[in-house]
Recover the amino acids of this structure.
């Protein structure tokens, strides 16, 4: 066959493709270089013996519309051996994914014909991206996500090698605290979603909206330099290969909650969409804190009557079932010589949950301070949507607009009972809290390949907005004394402070966090020859500006006049005690205890530029360079004595990195990397604001003296990809920290703990990771059963050890790992998939070693989270040709979560020896869903 050089032939192929758009089947895929696994642009792909063909675009992708049948696919590119893939089976109204790998050739060779089953050419895109990446990374695809019971991205992330979850939403990578990770969506950095920690809450993202996610574990100059555990890169779905419309509906129940009695505080009309309707807000024209404090007693009584009496907790029957629905749609069309595609999705899930928590705390001598039993009832809404558009002007140029929005809300009611041993009292308490978090991210980006020079230009600009509202968090306590001196001591009475309010006793708390992030950047890649070998020079830069405003209002009811007060009011029920007719000199009134420190504003500017080389020296690929980051951070607030607190930091960091990849064989790589990274204090870690967490009896406050942490990192990895969809890898890593930032307990007493942030002198972290994914078709050679090829077994394990340098810490004497670091992480599973019957089964297991939840001090031991076993399974079945039915069971074993102090320091939890801080029981979740593609 002669070489295809004529532009006329390309036009003919393009015309034939457009006129075949009504065909009933589609062949789509990418063409890749065998040596580097890079995508190839402008490759000719056509149906052998026909005029149906196309060429690959800027992403190396191709798309062919054909009638159902069996075809031979021809692929040809200058400088590579031509290839024919035979017996490509295309079914009616189905899209067939096919990735083709071409071998470079110095001389034009005869055409190579490959006769093989289709699945041997259909490579897993995740493993291909992992193999050809310049850095060490691990990921998971949307197809793999569908095979689990995971509803949000946080649950998905615990499946990735070396990753685990904390508190159900914060991700720990390689055993390092969540503050050492960086979150990104579509290559844009995300702000911290939390008012009380440097972290991103990954339960904000519905898993169904992801195309894939990766955890990047080593650095290159074109990546942000602020991480030590990993960069968590979320990618939303891209444009489809053809028009589609999909609908998924589902329901579920919890073994501990559904159909059982439950309690709920007040609700709003728009709670069902995760947004407060304003009914929890203070009355319109209610005075600000400074103005309120100047008012007379009579004026305060009148204002107290205006505030709604919303303290009632109602008992209800039959907790509702969980429900979820998703609508997805997309299309691709030709506009002249251009191609326009879009994809959109809307997802909504509402779940109700009941969990019980046994809580305690202990004195220095091990004696118990309190013992509480919490019943927690929550109504969670997780909704989101994406709408992405791409215009491909030609095979060398495209522009994309990607938009994402999500809302995550919790309406939680806590009913507490138990003993306060320090105060010799029995307690009954309630906390009612509605939290709503919203995230919006929009990005405009472009990629352009400049003609024969092959210079590649990528650019982007975007904005993100995150908001977190807590309107009217209410906390109330009733008590009665252990020692009965009179009849009144047998009845619970309300604890309402005299004179000055308390956020924990008849307190009302309002807060809002708003953070905007704006960013833009560009990357330019220029192909070069170095020692007669192909290479790339890449340079670029980015700008990021963040601004945050946090504002809190703290109110509470008080007894204003002890001499005239009607003490019988303290025996009133929760729904009547703060009614309007009790707001007078003989009753109660509101008090405002908002401090100047309850508000702060902050900004940060990140200016970054880099230069790097990507060189191939035969089997050796070297990616090296340097990144320069200038970070300017400002924060303004006030201390408790009304002194001004101003933080103004200016960090300039030169961050070098080197990544080596040596191809032992075409299927096996050895990787080595060394890089320097940083971890800077987050706004909240610096701010003096103190927030009291009712659930954990903990007050959390910032520290404006924190300094930047620097990390030196070394990685070594062996990886093998024996066949399509299979992988074996082993990684070693070492990290040396200077001034690591940790959350520590500063004091404990009077029924609560005080927690802040602190720089340790130094720390080391080193470990080994191993991962495998293997099809079991080899079993067919030793067994008469011919269905082994439908099974895949997979797993990963990480063994990690870290040690904190406490040589200048006069408080803590125990040797300990870094906060949040687990000594081991285990993930494993078995997957069965039968394409003919449409039956699938997926079983997944997860376990982490014990880790420090909060760092203690001398006399008060650190609080550990004990290991627990997590086992999930999902069964799926294709029905009605384009439909799928799924049944899932999440947390089959239902192990309790235990947090404790290791009193005998034996490294494990023993109930009668150690001090249990909390024990959480949540139940097992069952889900059933039906999906259909139109």
């Amino acid at each position: 066959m002669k070489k295809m050089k004529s532009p006329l032939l390309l036009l003919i192929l393009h015309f034939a493709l457009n006129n075949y758009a009504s065909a009933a089947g589609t062949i789509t895929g990418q063409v890749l270089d065998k040596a580097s696994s890079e995508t190839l642009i402008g490759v000719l792909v056509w149906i052998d013996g026909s005029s149906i063909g196309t060429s690959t675009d800027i992403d190396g992708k191709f798309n062919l519309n054909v009638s159902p049948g069996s075809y031979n696919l021809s692929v040809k590119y200058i400088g590579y051996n031509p290839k024919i893939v035979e017996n490509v089976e295309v079914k009616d109204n189905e899209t067939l994914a096919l990735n083709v790998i071409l071998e470079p050739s110095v001389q034009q060779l005869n055409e190579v014909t490959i006769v093989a089953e289709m699945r041997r050419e259909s490579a897993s895109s995740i493993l291909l991206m992992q193999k050809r990446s310049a850095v060490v990374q691990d990921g998971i695809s949307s197809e793999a996500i569908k095979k689990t019971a995971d509803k949000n991205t946080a649950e998905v992330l615990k499946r990735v090698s070396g990753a685990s979850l904390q508190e159900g939403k914060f991700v720990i990578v390689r055993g390092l605290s969540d503050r050492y990770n960086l979150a990104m969506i579509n290559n844009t950095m995300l702000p911290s979603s939390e008012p009380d920690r440097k972290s991103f809450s990954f339960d904000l993202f519905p898993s169904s909206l992801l195309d894939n996610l990766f955890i990047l574990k080593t650095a290159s100059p074109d990546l942000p330099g602020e991480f030590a555990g990993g960069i968590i890169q979320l990618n939303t779905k891209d444009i489809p290969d053809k028009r589609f419309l999909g609908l998924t509906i589902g329901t579920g129940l919890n073994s501990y909650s559904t159909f059982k009695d439950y309690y709920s505080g007040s609700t709003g009309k728009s709670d069902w969409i995760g947004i407060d309707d304003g009914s929890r807000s203070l009355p319109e024209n209610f005075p600000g804190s400074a103005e309120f404090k100047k008012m007379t007693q009579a004026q305060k009584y009148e204002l107290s009557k205006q505030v709604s009496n919303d303290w009632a907790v109602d008992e209800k029957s039959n907790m509702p079932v969980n429900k979820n629905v998703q609508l997805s749609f997309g299309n691709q069309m030709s506009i002249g010589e251009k191609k326009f595609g879009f994809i959109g999705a809307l997802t909504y899930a509402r779940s109700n949950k009941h969990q019980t928590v046994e809580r305690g705390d202990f004195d220095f001598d091990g004696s118990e301070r309190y013992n509480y039993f919490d019943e927690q009832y929550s109504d969670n809404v997780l909704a989101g949507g994406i709408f992405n558009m791409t215009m491909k002007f030609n095979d060398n140029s495209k522009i994309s607009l990607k938009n994402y929005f999500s809302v995550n809300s919790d309406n939680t009611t806590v009913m507490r009972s138990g003993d306060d041993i320090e105060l010799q009292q029995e307690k009954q308490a309630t906390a009612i809290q509605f939290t709503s978090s919203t995230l919006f991210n929009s990005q405009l980006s472009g990629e352009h390949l400049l003609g024969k020079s092959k210079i590649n230009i990528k650019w982007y600009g975007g904005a993100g907005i995150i908001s977190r509202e807590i309107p009217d968090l209410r906390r109330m306590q009733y008590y009665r004394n252990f020692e009965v001196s009179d009849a009144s001591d047998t009845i619970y009475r309300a604890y309402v402070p005299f004179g000055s309010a308390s956020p924990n006793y008849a307190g009302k708390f309002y807060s809002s966090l708003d953070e905007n992030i704006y960013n833009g950047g560009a990357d330019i890649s220029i192909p070069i020859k170095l020692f007669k070998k192909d290479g790339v020079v890449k340079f670029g830069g980015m700008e990021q500006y963040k601004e945050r405003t946090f504002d809190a209002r703290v109110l509470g009811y008080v007894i204003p006049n002890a001499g005239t007060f009607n003490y019988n009011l303290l025996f009133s029920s929760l729904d009547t005690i703060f009614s309007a007719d009790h707001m007078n000199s003989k009753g109660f009134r509101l008090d405002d205890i908002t401090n100047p420190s309850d508000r702060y504003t902050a900004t940060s500017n990140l200016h970054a530029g880099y230069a790097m080389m990507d060189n191939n020296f035969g089997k050796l690929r070297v990616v090296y360079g340097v990144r320069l980051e200038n970070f300017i951070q400002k924060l303004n607030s006030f201390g408790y004595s009304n002194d001004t607190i101003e933080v103004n930091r200016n960090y300039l960091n030169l961050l070098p990195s080197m990544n080596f990849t040596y191809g032992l064989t075409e299927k096996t790589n050895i990787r080595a990397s060394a890089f320097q990274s940083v971890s800077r204090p987050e706004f909240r870690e610096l701010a003096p604001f103190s927030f009291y967490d009712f659930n954990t009896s903990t007050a959390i406050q910032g520290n404006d003296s924190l300094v930047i942490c620097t990390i030196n990192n070394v990685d070594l990895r062996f990886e093998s990809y024996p066949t399509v969809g299979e992988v074996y890898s082993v990684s070693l890593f070492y990290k040396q920290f200077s001034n690591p930032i940790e959350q520590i307990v500063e004091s404990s007493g009077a029924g609560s703990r005080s927690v802040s942030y602190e720089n340790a002198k130094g720390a080391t972290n080193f470990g080994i990771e191993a991962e495998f994914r293997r099809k079991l078709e080899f079993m067919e050679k030793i067994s008469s059963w011919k269905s082994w090829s439908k099974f895949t077994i997979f797993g990963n394990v990480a063994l990690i050890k870290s040690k904190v340098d406490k040589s200048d810490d006069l408080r803590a004497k125990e040797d300990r790992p870094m906060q949040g670091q687990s000594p081991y992480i285990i993930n494993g599973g078995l997957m069965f998939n039968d394409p003919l019957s449409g039956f699938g089964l997926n079983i997944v297991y997860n376990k982490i070693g014990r880790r420090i939840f909060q760092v203690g001090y001398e006399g008060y031991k650190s609080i550990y989270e004990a290991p627990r076993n997590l086992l999930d399974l999902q069964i799926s079945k294709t029905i009605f040709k384009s439909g799928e039915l799924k049944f899932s069971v999440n947390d089959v074993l239902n192990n309790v979560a235990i947090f404790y102090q290791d009193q005998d320091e034996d490294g494990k939890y023993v109930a009668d020896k150690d001090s249990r801080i909390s024990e959480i029981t949540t139940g097992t979740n069952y889900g059933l869903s039906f999906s259909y593609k139109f």
Q: What stands out?
A: The chain has two domains: 7-123, 304-933. The chain is about 5% helix and 55% strand. The domain at 7-123 is CATH 2.60.40.1120 (Immunoglobulin-like).
